[in-house]
Amino acid sequence: MKKVVLLFLSSIVLLSCGGDKKKENVETTNEEVISDKGNFSVVMDAVYKKNDSIVFYYTQNGFECTNEQAIKQAITGSDSIQNITIQLPGNVILENFRINLSNNPDQETVLLSKFRIKRNENIFDIQQVDFSKYLNFNENVSWDDTLKGFKFISVKDSYTPRVLGNQGLESKLTEM
Fold first, then answer.
1. Most buried in the list 36, 64, 66, 140, measured by CB within 10 Å?
2. pLDDT-based confidence at 64, cuts 50/70/90?
C-alpha cells in the first residue's frame, strides 16, 4: 500500500512539473509575438529655446487619447535642434497621435523641422513641407513665415498648442 501511495505521489509531482514547463513555453512565445507587433517610437526634430514639456497621446484599437495613453517628456531649452524621442510601450500598435507641444506659456515659438516615426526597421519621415499632408495643428499654433517656425498663441485664455495626425498619417501608420 505504501508503494502505491508513493508511486501515485511521485507521478503527480512529475506531471505537475512538466505541465509548468509547457505553460512557461507558451507564455514566452506570446510575449515574443506581442513585442514584435509594436516597438514604435516618434522622434521630433525641434528647437525649444526655453525649458518646456510635451505630452504625447497615442491612439490604438480605435480608442481616443486618454491619460492612460499619455507619455510626458521634459525638454531642456536650447538654441540647437534637438531630437525629442518618445518611445511607446512595446505592445502598442500606433494608429494616430496627438502632441501637446508646450506647457510653457513663455515659449513663443518652436522650430519643428521633422517628425520621424519608427517601427522596428520601418521608418516614415514627415518633413516640414509635408506637415499639412499628415498633421493638423489647432488654433493655438500658427505658422510664422519670417521665422520659418510655429508661433504658440493663447486663444480665449487657452494655451494648449497641439498637433494631431490626420487621415493621411493614419494611412501611413497602417502600412507600417
1. 140
2. confident
